[in-house]
Amino acid sequence: MLLIRGGTLVDRSGQRPGDVLISAERIAKVGTGLEPGGAPLFDASGALVVPGGIDVHTHLDLPVGAVRSADDFQTGTVAAACGGTTCVVDFAGGGRESPDEALREWHAKADGRAVIDYGFHLTVTSVPEEAGQARQLFSRFLQQGVASVKLYMAYPDRLMVDDATLRRALDAARETGVLVCVHAEDGAEVDRRVKEALREGAAGPEALPRTRPPEVEAAAIRRAAGLASDAGTRLYVVHLSSAAGLEEARRAVAGGVDLLVETCPQYLFLTAERLLGPPEEAANFVCAPPPRSDEDREALWGAVADGSVAVISTDHCPFRKEDRRRGVRARPEGWADFTEIPGGLPGVETRMSLTYQGVAEGRLSVERWVDAVAGAPARLFGLGHRKGALEPGLDADIVVFDPSATRGLDAANLHMRTDHSPYEGKVVTGWPALTVSRGRIVARDGQPADADPGWGRFIPRKASSS
Ligand SMILES: [Zn+2]
User: Fold this and answer.
1) Number of H helices, E strands in the chain
2) Which residues, including other chains, have CB under 8 Å from residue 362's CB and lie 6 or more apart?
3) Residues 457, 437: contact at Cβ < 8 Å?
4) Centre of ligand 1 from the C-alpha of residue 153, in Å
5) Contact status, residue 42 vs residue 20, Cβ threshold 8 Å
6) Mean pLDDT over all residues of the chain?
7) In this structure, are residues 146 and 121 in contact, taking their beta carbons and an 8 Å threshold?
């Protein structure tokens, strides 16, 4: 039992003063003047009381060539809890194994280690030609609690699917309610540009943006939106990075396509300039899509504010400096060119606070912030029956967010298992004072509290809703 008293409750419909009473892992009551009835009290006056953050894009314990992402399900979920996130949906599998193998493996990685609840997406590289079989496959995913799949339009020879495969996935999704997510970059065009850059001797991280420019993202979104339109199926674009891609997404929505978009803090805060420094420094900012320009950042902030971007996730995929240097081929002398640098950034701990800066700076409403980091991810990814709102009966996943707390985002202040932070030197305003996972206090003032490995459970997800 716990009574969180005297805070400002926020969800997408608005803000109001109130208390939240927690009992037996659930929200028991929401209202004003609630009596503790013996429950311990937490004084939330001056703070926001919000549904726990839900990060629907993480890569924990992921093998990438010769190395693996630095956070496993324990360190990654402890870091998430410290930053106010109470549920992650991780991408199971590296893409080469069968969906069954991937799920088994990911359950084994998470089971007994996670300190907050979690779910899995599956990466799909092939879809049966026969519609009935495709439908059966997707139904089976849903029966196993996996309500979303991701298909890659990039990385030929490894993960990329052709348009016919994507169309079959969209058809099976329409029939089953599974949500189709796409990594929208035109893989053939990226490959052509990579070869061209290497031929010209551009082998360092500074060459990354020219090989994956905004138009490569925009072109893929246009194609995918066309397929979703023909199929009459909802489509979700992960990690949107550019104004050009946003424009395509908005055009599709205006044309009636049920297209939803996610972005990540790196595209709201970082620019491609980070890739221009000394290669060993710049290597720490390698990710795909790469960070863009200030104009792109501004466009994305506007889209979060007006709802054109529905969700902010992280694409959390941290690497240590040494792992970046060794690269995907494990050369003792370090990577030969930028294509061998493992790509991805840490972010699961800093997402809530970084995006709150949008509220602090007057760029977006507090309601939009809460919806982008918790409400919309819950609804779209089939977690709404358990999480994402302050309603009696739902899991008591709650964050008391102190809007006046300040924190430096240097790696030394954080719990993600990396030796660098993309936001070194940056100080944010607003940090969780308390993170509650199913009624249990898993973090206080950004430090782990009663965060027992194994407390976090797999949450079977349902079909996507709006
Ligand atoms: Zn990702």
Assistant:
1) 15, 19
2) none
3) no
4) 13
5) no
6) 96
7) yes
Collapsing DSSP states into helix, strand and coil, what is residue 124? Answer: coil
Distance (Å) from CA 58 to ligand 1 centroid: 6
Alpha carbon of 366 to ligand 1 centroid (Å): 26
Contacts of 104 (CB under 8 A, 6+ apart): none
Q: What's the pLDDT tens digit per position in 115-144?
A: 999 999 999 999 999 999 999 999 999 999
HSE-up (13 A, CA, CB side) for residue 373 = 35
In the reported structure, the alpha carbon of residue 144 is separated from the centroid of ligand 1 by a whole-number distance in angstroms of 22
pLDDT tens readout for residues 49-107: 999 999 999 999 999 988 999 999 999 999 999 999 999 999 999 877 899 999 999 99
Centre of ligand 1 to C-alpha 122, Å, is 12
Q: How far is the CA of 62 from the centre of ligand 1 (A)?
A: 11
Model pLDDT, residue 76: 98
Output the CA 210–ligand 1 centroid distance in Å.
20
Q: What is the 381 CA–ligand 1 centroid distance (Å)?
A: 16
**Ligand 1 center to residue 181 CA distance, Å?**
11
Model confidence, pTM? 0.98
Residues 6+ apart with CB under 8 A from 450: 440, 441, 442
25 C-alpha to ligand 1 centroid (Å): 31
Closest CA to 273 of 284, 282, 262, 265: 282
- On the 0-12 / 13-18 / 19+ scale of CB atoms within 10 A, 404 is exposed
Confidence label for 262 from pLDDT (cuts 50, 70 and 90): very high
Could you give the CA distance from residue 165 to residue 33 in angstroms, rounded to a whole number? 56
Task: Give 356 Cα–ligand 1 centroid separation in angstroms.
Answer: 22
How far is the centre of ligand 1, averaged over its atoms, from the C-alpha of 38 (Å)?
45
Q: Rounded to the nearest whole angstrom, what is the distance from the C-alpha of residue 313 to the centroid of ligand 1?
A: 10
What's the CA-to-centroid distance between 59 and ligand 1, angstroms? 7
Question: Which DSSP string corresponds to 25-42?
Answer: TEEEEEESS---TT--EE
Query: Look-up: residue for tokens 């971007």?
Result: 309
Secondary structure class of 419 (helix, strand, coil): coil
Query: Residue 330: which region, alpha, beta or left (left: phi > 0; alpha: psi -120 to 50)?
Result: left
Tell me how far the alpha carbon of residue 1 lies from the centroid of ligand 1, in angstroms.
37
Residue 334 makes CB contacts below 8 A (sequence gap 6+) with 325, 326, 327
User: What is the distance in A from the centroid of ligand 1 to the CA of 54?
Assistant: 15
Question: What pLDDT, on a 0 to 100 scale, did the predictor assign at position 96?
Answer: 77
Q: Please give the distance, rounded to the nearest whole angstrom, from the Cα atom of residue 91 to the centre of ligand 1.
A: 8
- 452 alpha carbon to ligand 1 midpoint, in Å? 27
E-only strand ranges, 96-196: 117-123, 148-152, 179-183
